[in-house]
Amino acid sequence: MNQKRITTLLSALLIGALGSYQLSAQTNSSKPNVILIMVDDMGYSDLGNYGSEINTPNLDRLAKEGTRLREFYNNSICAPTRASLLTGQYQHKAGVGYFDVNLGLPAYQGYLNKESLTLGEVFRSGGYSTLMSGKWHVGSEDKAQWPNQRGFDKFYGILKGAANYFNTDGLPFGKSPYPVALIRNNEELHPKADSYYFTDEIGNNAVQFLDEQNKENKPFFLYLAFTAPHWPLQAKPVDIAKYRGKFDEGWDVLREKRIKKLKENGILLADQTIAPRDPEVPEWNKLTYDEKQFWKVKMEVYAAMVDNMDQNVGKVLEKLKALKKDKNTLIVFISDNGAQGGFNTYNPLRRGLVKNDGPIGTSGSFDYQEQNWAYLSNTPLQDYKNNMHEGGFSSPFIAWYPSKIKAGRIDKGTGHLIDLAPTFYDLAGIQYPKELNGVTSNPLPGKSLLPVLIDGASEVNRGAPIFWERAGNRAVRDGKWKLVSIYPSYQWELYNLENDRGETNNVAQQNTGIVNELSAKYFDWADKTGVVEYSKFKQKNELIPGAAAKK
User: Which residue, among 178, 203, 128, has the nearest Cα to 425 in the 3D structure?
Assistant: First the structure.
């Protein structure tokens, strides 16, 4: 073959290769980006667009330009929620049936098993950059359990369940400090005390990751996992100042105002019941002046933490727009559980310890909302974090995708954490791997939410109930019916959530057939999923953070 023909052939091959590369680049660039935002211990009605007096303009904008769901469920507490969120599995199937502690059984090993693929692993297999900034909490004892080893290209944040917002000092936790390290890509960071605010750093690192990822010819998945407004109550003075006097009316008056807003904006339907007044919460107008001063400061700081979280969502939105990726990005916002009930004297996180080396809100303060204000945060639902009544595991849900989701919609939804993975993979056109690294994957039990978010369906067509179990608390949701029992009672309660989301009328005795049918389905699910009777763990669990229920 002469030189001229060789040159011509090489040129043709090069042109073909470039054309193929350009086609591939176009395909990659047209794939949707996905941002999943989760906040920590925030109540159902704490966003402005869900009825709150807290200023959340960025999330309000996403709600106005996207859709909200009235019914979206988490797993009622931090680590089990994150296990389901990250894998699309029920938490027991993923290995975190109880918490991030190893109780000696596969369903309770306290970290994600290899059979349960993470969002990072699956998105990466589909050609995505995978980014995470914030709280992990599904495995920390071995580096093999860390985010970078479970599919995330970039990670900044904490591996455990809580942190001081101003420094890396150990949190007061029982008899010994609770060590919390800041990690970036497997390396421990040692910032100067009081030189940063953690929520800001979660936002800043997310923005930095997006800048760095922009140099790659890939779509991205970003998991933005804020710790706010989780204990301890700590916020920047400039944010706290915005809320001075905003809660002087107290939880009773403000709850009624939230209920009115929830009805006006269509989140709470007119024929829906409202949870009865919590008898453990004192009437605001019966408190002394000093008691009111003590209590209102807590909610001012809590509101400042939510406000600052929203500001950091705004940073990410600004970066998306600057990178010209805002029109092709799905954003989903949820909370990991309801607001936390209990009081300092028996709060499972605090073990009765009160340690305030500074005013509430500062880096020396380790206080939390307590049940009085959690009662407001979970309006109009019943009960609190770690509970299977609606206030314990109902999350606000916002989905925003300008080119796909119709603006201003509010739908019933009835979605669950296990639905997010199939939703994202469906949207991204990623085939869920049947096997990864030689390990057969657990199949996904959830349903894609795209028919609701994009096609206009009012709720998920499941074909099967949703199930929960955590620390002996159990629940089943099937259509309008909800079956629930709270440990240590094993008495089933039955509610028709079609008109009784406040769970005011237990109709179990009038519907024994439905109770029997749903309880049989629950025990079948529990057996297949690896659920173990909580009383077998109870003696050991009393030494473990989060083991106790509200009391």
Answer: 128
